[in-house]
């Protein structure tokens, strides 16, 4: 193999020297490894100076030129990515995945979630407005002073039977009776033909107010709006207060009263009312 001038820069400078030409000829003839070692038996491969052999830079340049387009192409792709190169953020592929079936399921789910939410919101707004209205109604003005009345003044049952009015003079026996089958314990307002309140004076006769044993309130009525008093009801059975029920409470609702009444144990007992 004849060495090239580009591989050995010194050759290009001293090719005219006959001694150098002779040396080059000898080295080229000894390029074969087996021949070189046979001629120099005392010389080992480790003693060979690696600087005597200069690798050709030309193949490296060719190799670098061969890799350069690929590296340039990769760098261009990283620097300026295509908008559709990433399928995760591709709008066109996202639209392609949204089929009509998926859209239908989405709309059904949205409706199922929106309807209960709207109902709950409506109920909450109604409850809030009702609470505001109740608070407003429960506040009354007495002598230029605002008084808050208790809720019992607006949540009650009524007694309006004309036969229980003491002034009407009805004897025994009229319904509805005041036993558990006809009434439950709670707040009552006396209205209509029954009058406006329970009798507050002692009754000393039987067979009146539509029953055998009439009852009257044994206590005092509250005089201030919003205030409450407590007493008991006595029933005349031939003896004063032969049978009684307690506690019986009364609330002044600024113009009318409400009474907390308890069912009687027999149809012979009845609450007696008056105007």
Automatic annotation (TrEMBL):
Compositionally biased residues, Low complexity: 73-86
Keyword Membrane part of the UniProt annotation: yes
Transmembrane segments: 103-125
Composition bias type Polar residues, residue spans: 11-35
Region of interest called Disordered, as start-end residue ranges on this chain: 1-35, 48-86
Superkingdom as given in the UniProt entry: Eukaryota
Keyword field: Membrane, Transmembrane, Transmembrane helix
Identification of the protein by name: Uncharacterized protein
């Amino acid at each position: 193999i004849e060495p090239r001038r580009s591989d050995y820069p010194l050759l290009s400078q001293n090719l005219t020297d006959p001694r150098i030409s002779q040396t080059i000829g000898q080295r080229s003839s000894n390029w074969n490894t087996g021949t070189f070692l046979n001629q120099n038996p005392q010389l080992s491969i480790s003693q060979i100076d690696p600087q005597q052999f200069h690798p050709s830079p030309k193949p490296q340049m060719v190799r670098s030129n061969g890799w350069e387009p690929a590296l340039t192409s990769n760098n261009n792709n990283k620097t300026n990515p295509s908008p559709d190169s990433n399928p995760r953020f591709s709008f066109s592929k996202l639209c392609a995945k949204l089929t009509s079936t998926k859209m239908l399921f989405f709309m059904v789910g949205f409706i199922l979630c929106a309807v209960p939410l709207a109902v709950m919101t409506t109920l909450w707004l109604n409850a809030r407005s009702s609470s505001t209205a109740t608070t407003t109604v429960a506040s009354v003005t007495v002598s230029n002073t605002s008084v808050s009345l208790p809720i019992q003044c607006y949540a009650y049952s009524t007694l309006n039977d004309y036969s229980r009015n003491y002034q009407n003079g009805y004897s025994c026996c009229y319904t509805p009776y005041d036993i558990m089958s006809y009434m439950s314990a709670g707040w009552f307002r006396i209205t209509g033909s029954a009058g406006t309140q329970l009798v507050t004076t002692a009754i000393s006769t039987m067979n009146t107010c539509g029953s055998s044993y009439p009852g009257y309130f044994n206590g005092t009525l509250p005089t201030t709006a919003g205030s409450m008093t407590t007493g008991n009801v006595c029933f005349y059975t031939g003896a004063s207060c032969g049978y009684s029920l307690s506690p019986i409470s009364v609330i002044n609702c600024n113009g009318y009263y409400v009474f907390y009444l308890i069912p009687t144990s027999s149809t012979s007992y009845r609450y007696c009312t008056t105007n």
